[in-house]
Amino acid sequence: MTDRNLPSVEYLRKRLRYEPETGKLFWLDCEDMAGWWRTRHKGKEAFTAFNDGGYKCGAINHNSFKAHRVAWAIYHGDWPSDQIDHINGIKDDNRIVNLHVVTSQENGRNQSMNRRNTSGVCGVAWYKPTRKWMSYITIEGKFKNLGYFATIEAAAAARAEASRQHGYTDRHGT
C-alpha cells in the first residue's frame, strides 16, 4: 500500500479508540459521519472481520487496513516503517506488547509451519531420488541444502542447528 492511501494518525485517532491492553479497536462518535452510521457503530468494536491470512481487518473510507497496523499507528503516532510481527504468533492478538516492527527477512524467520509440509518438521522433506531425508533452509531468499540423512531425526537436528546459527526464532515452523 502506498503512503498516499494511508489516512493520517490524527484522522485515525478522531475515528477510533485503541485499547493497548486488549488489542481492540472501537469506533468513536464522529460528528462528521452520517447519523445512521453513528447510531449503528459508535462505541462498538471495529476491525472485527478476518482476511484470508487470518488477520483482523476493517475499512476506513472504503480502503481496507489490517487492525494491527492501525493499532500500531494510533499507539505510536506514526504508521509502521516495515512489517508488523505478532510476537506470540497469534494473528488476532493485537495487544501492543505483542506487536513489533520487523523486516521481511526477520518476519520470515518467525513464520509458522507451511500448511503444505508433509514431514511434520520445518525444513525437512523426503527426497525420492536419494531415498533419504533432505534438510534445507532459506537464507536471505536463497535455498540452502543442508544434506541428506537416513533418519528424519538427523535431518531435523541439522535444520535445528542451521536455524539457531541464522537467527530463526524458536517458534519458527511450529
Would you give an account of this structure?
With 174 residues, this protein is of the alpha+beta class. It has five helices and eleven strands; from the N terminus they run αββαββββαββαβββα. The strands form four sheets. Strands 1-2-3 form a three-stranded antiparallel sheet. A three-stranded antiparallel sheet has the order 4-5-6. The chain has a three-stranded antiparallel sheet with strand order 9-10-11, covered by helices on one side. A hairpin with a 2-residue loop joins strand 5 and strand 6. The model has no long low-confidence stretch (mean pLDDT 89).
Q: What attributes does this structure have?
A:
174 residues; alpha+beta; three-stranded antiparallel beta sheet
Could you name the ranges where pLDDT drops below 50 across 5 or more consecutive residues? none
In angstroms, what separates the terminal alpha carbons? 29 Å
Task: Report the principal-axis shape.
Answer: elongated
Largest sheet: 3 strands, antiparallel
Number of helices: 5
Radius of gyration, Cα only, in angstroms?
21 Å
Q: Would you tell me the overall average pLDDT?
A: 89
Topology order in helix (H) and strand (E) letters: HEEHEEEEHEEHEEEH
Indicate the percent of residues in helices.
10-25%
> Biggest sheet: strands side by side, in what order?
1-2-3
What fraction of residues sit in β-strands? 25-35%
